[in-house]
Fold each of these.
Amino acid sequence: MTEQELVYGLQNGEELAFKELVTRFQDKVFNTSLGLLQHNADAEDIAQEVFIQVYRSVKDFKAEAKLSTWIYRITVTKCLDQLRSKKRKKRFGFVTGLFGADNKPLYEPQEFCHPGVQLDRKEEAAILFKLIQQLPENQQIAFILNKIEELSYREISDILNTNESAVDSLLQRAKQNLRKKINELPP
Amino acid sequence: MNCPLKTEGFYIKQHLNKSITTKKMKSTDKSERILESLTGLQKAGAPDFFYSRLTARMQNELLSKRKQIFILRPLFVTSALFAVFILNVFSIIKFNTLKEPETTVQSSNTATIESFVSAYNINTESVYE
C-alpha cells in the first residue's frame, strides 16, 4: 500500500488501512515515546493515544507533509504534554504528599535504561538518560530523535518545522549541556 | 650552578601538570564514554498485541461515548424535565399547605405576648413617663 492509498483508506474509515498504519508505525512511535518518557507503561499509553489521534484527525490531513512527519509530530506533542503533566504533579507533591495511602510512592523514581542499549554500556546510558531529562525541551526532542530514532537532520527539521542548521545548533547545544552536566557529576 | 630546590620545584610542577592533564583526559574520556553510550542502540519494538489492545481501548472509548449520547437523547431529556417539573409542582403544593396553620399559631403567640406585657406593665410609654 502506498502512502497515498493508506491515507485514502484511513480517510474512508477502512479498518485494513488502519491496521496497516499501526503495523507500519507502531515501533517508531513506541521507540520515540520510550526515549522521551523513559517509562514503558507511559510510552505504550501515549503510543495508543497517538494512533487514536491519527484515526480521529486523518480527515484533516492535507498531505502537505509526509505521513510519518505528521505522526512523529503528534507523538512528540503528546509526549511533551505527558512530561509537563508529570512535572506539575511533582511540583504539587508537597501538598499531596509523595506517598499514597498504603505508603507506596506516587511518583516513581526515574531509573531508566533503554532496552536496546548494549550490555557493556548500560551504566553510562542510564546516567545519560537521567541527564537528558534535564535538557530544555527542544534540545531533548532533537537529541532523542537523532540518537534513539536515528532520524536525519532533514527529517528532524520537518518534524520541528525548522531548518537543518537550527537542528544542528540544537544538537550541538544539547551535547555541550550534557558534557557540562557530566563534568559536574560526583566522581 | 645547580640549584637542587629549583630542580625539585620544577619536577613537582611537572608532576602536578601531569596529574591535572591526566584528570582532564579522564573526565573527557568519561564524558565521551557517556555521550557515546547510545552508539549501536537497537530500537525498541512496540509491545506484543499492541494492535489488539489499541482496538480494545478504542471500542471502550466508543461505548462510553454512546452512554453519554444516550443521556442526551431527546426522549430521555424530555422525561427527565417532566419529572423535575412534577416534583416542583408537588413541592409548591406541599409548601403552601404547610404554610396555613402558621396564622393561628401567630395569633395565639400575639395573645400570649400581649397578656405578658399588660401583666408586667412592660410597654415603653410607662417607662418614659
Note: Residues 103 and 109 of chain B are 10 Å apart (CA to CA).
Amino acid sequence: MLFSSITFLYVFLPAVMILYLTVPNKVRNGVLLCASLLFYGWGEPKYILLMVAAIIQLFFFGKLIERYRKTKWSKIFLTTSILCSLLMLGYFKYTDFVIGSINQIAGSDFPLLHIALPIGISFYTFQMISYAVDVYRCEVKAQKSIVKLATYVAMFPQLIAGPIVRYKSIENALENRRNNWEDIAYGCKRFLLGLGKKVLIANQMGELVSLCQSVTTQTISVSWLYGIAFTLQIYYDFSGYSDMAIGLGKMLGFTFPENFQYPLCARSVTDFWRRWHMTLGIFFRDYLYIPLGGNRVKKSRWFLNIFIVWMATGLWHGAAWNFLWWGVYFALFLIIEKTFLLKLLYRSRILSHVYTCLVVIISFIIFNGNGVLDIVDSIQGLVGIGTEGVLSATALYLWSRYAGILVLAILGATSLPKQLAELFVNRYGNCIIGQILQVLFFCLLLLIATAFLVDGSFNPFLYFRF
Amino acid sequence: MDLLIHSYILGFKVPEGVGFMKQKRFLQILVSTIAGFILLLSLLIVVLPYQSVSESERRSLAKFPQLRVDAIGTGSFMEDLEVYLQDHFPFRENFRNLKAIVTYYGMGQKENHEIYLVQDGTKKSAVKIEAAYRKESLQYATDRFAYLYNTYLQNQAKGIYMVAIPDKHYYGAAYSKKPQMDYEKLFQQIEENMPYAKRIPIEDQLTLSHFYTTDSHWRQESLADLSSYLLKEMGKVGGQTYDSYFATDHFKGVYAGQLAIPMQADSIFYLENDILKSLDVYDYETNQEIALYDLEKIKERDPYELFMGGNKSLLRIQNNCAENQDKLVVFRDSFGSSLIPLLCAEYQEIWAVDIRYISPVILKNYINFQDADVLFLYSTSVLNHSETMK
C-alpha cells in the first residue's frame, strides 16, 4: 500500500487513526502493530511471515546479547543476529545479481532464480541490525516485550521507505507516549506537504523522465532535461515520502529523525551527503565506517574504508552494477574533496554549487542507467556526443510543457519557500486571516493531491460500445 | 521546503491577543477540518450510489474485486481495489476537472491527457496530440485492406479509392507548437502500400473549423463541398445542395470528457434533401431498417451517433431515386457516418462496412463487389491505432 493512494488516504489511515486515538494507551502498541502488519501484508501478502520470523529472531537474540553481556557469547549472538538479517537481505536482494555476475564473468549459464524482493526489506533489516548492535553496545536495553519490538520494526510509517529509525530514538515513546494537538497538527501538515511533493512534483518529473527516454532524436537539451528531471524526481519522491513518514509518526506520537536538509543546495559532495538520506549516512557511519576505523587510520586505509562504505551504500540502493558504480563514483569525489578540493570549493559559493549540482546530476544518470552503454550514452549526450544538435522541436516542447513545474521544483528545493513563509508569518501570523489561510492552504493541498490520485484510473475509449 | 515545517509551524509562536484564535484552538480547527474532509469523503465512498459508467471516459467503471484467497495472496485484490476506489471516488468528475485545471493552467502544461485547446474563431477547439507515426499500425491497416482487395476487389471492383482524413492535430499543431507525427510520411506510406487504390488527398479541403470543438469528428453541415469534391474525384457529378436542420446544442464530445476542462458545448446540425429523405437504411446487426438520422440518439450518451445510428458494423443504404444502378462500398470508421449520406445521391446501393466490428471474412455472405466503386475512408488517428481492425 502506498501512502499516495486512495486506499491508504481514505480507508486505511482514517480507520487506523480513529481506532488508535480512541483505545487506551496501553493497547496502542498492539493496535499499531496490527495495523502495520495489515499495511505490510496488503502490499506483500507472501512475505509477512518472513518479517514476523525476522522479528522473532531479533527479539530472542536481543535478549541473549544482553543476558550474556561481557562474555564472548554476547558477540557470538550479535554476529549471528546480524548474519541472519544480512543473509535474509542477501538472499532476496542479491542472489540473482550474484548469479548474473558470475554468468557474465565466467561465461556460464546458471539460471536465475527470479526471487521477488520483499518490500521494505532493505529498511527493516538495517533497523534490526541497528537494534542488535545498540543492545550489544549497551546503548539501549533489550526490549522485553515482543509486541513493542515488533511495533518498532514493523511500524508502517517508515517500514517501506524510511527514514531508518534507530531504536534508541523511539525507545521512550514505545513505552510511554501521549498525543497532543500540536503533534497531530504538525503531523497532518508534514504529511500533506510530503503528499504534495510526491503527487504534484515527483510524479510529474517521473512523466518527464519517461518522455525524455522515449525521444527518438536525442539532443543536448533533452539529455540535460533528463538528468535534471530525474534528480528532481528522486529528490521529491524520496523526501516527500520521508515527510509523510515523519508526519505519520508524529500523529502517532513518535518523533522520527529528519532525512533531508536541502541537499540540492549543497556546496560539495561531502556537504551533499550530510543533507541527503541522512539516516542512511548515519547508519553506515556508525555501523560500518567507524568500526572499520573511520579516518583514524593511515591514509591508504582511510581511503579503503571510504570505498567499502560507498560500495555498500551503492549496493544497498539496488542489486545491479550501476548502483555499485554509483557508490564508487561518490567515493572518488569524497576522497578528492577530503584531500584538497574542499578548501578550493568554499572560496566560491556559485562555483561550488554548480560543481555539486553537476556531480549529483551525473550520479543520478548512473543511478538510473540500464547498463553501461546506456549510462555512457546518457552522459555523452550532456556534452553533445551522439546527439543531433542542441535543440529540437521535441526538446522545445518538453522544456516549455514542463517549465512551470521545473521552476516550482527547483525553487522548492531551496530555502526560498521557508523564507517566504517566515515573511508571511511575521506579517500575518498574529491575525486570524493568516491562520485561516493556513487552513485553506492545507485543505486545498489535500484536495488537489486527491484530484491527481483519482485521475490515476483515467482510461478513455472513443466510443460507448460495451 | 525541508526545514519549512520546523521554522514556520513550530518555531513561530503566535502571541496571545484580541482578535485571533488561541494557538491550540487554531490547531484543533486545522486538524478537524482536514480530518473532516477525509472522513466525509471516506463515508461518501460507501454511501453514494454505485455508478457503472463513466460518461466522460466512455467506459464501464471498475467493479468491486472478488474476495478470493488467491487474489489476496498475489496482491491482485489490493491492486483492483485501488482502481475501484479511484473509479468510484465521490465527485470523481469534479476532481478530474480540478486536476485538469491545475495541470493545464496551474502548472502551465497547456494540455491534459495529451489534449490541448486551440483558438478556433470565437471558441476553443479541443485537439488530441498525435505525436508519433506508428509505422507498424499503418502497415497492419493496409495489410487488412490488401486482404480485402485480394479477396473481393481484384478484377471485380470498378474504381478503388482511398481517403485518409487528417485528424484535428494536423491542423491544430501549427498553432500550438505541439509535437506532430509526420503526416506526409503516413500519406506516402498509404500510397506505397495501396498501389491498387487512388488516394484522394483532402488535407487542403479542410480546416479546424470543419470539426466539432469538443469532439474528434467533423461537422456534417460543413461537408457539402468536400462530398462534392470526392464524388467528382470518383468520376461522379457532385454538386448536391442540402438544407441544414438543427439537432442539439448540448453536444459535448469525446475530447471534452477526456480533457476535463469546462468547454462550451457544440451544436449538431444534419443535412437533408429529397434524396436523403428517401434513403432506406438496413442494419445487419439488428436485422432491421433504421433511420438515416436517429434523432433519439441526441438524448443519449453520444449525440454524434444520430448519424447512421452510430458505430454499426454493416449497413446497406438503398437510394430509390437513383438514376443509375451504381454501387458504392465504403470501408470506414465513425467519420464515415456523417459523410456517407452525402455520397448516396449518385449511387443506387451503398454499403457502409466497419471492419473493426465485422470480420472481412464473412463479407462475401452480404456484398457483391462486382462493378462497385470502393472507397476506403479512414481518419489518420484510426490508421495510426489500427489494432481493433479485424
Note: Chain A touches chain B through 83 residues (CB under 8 Å).
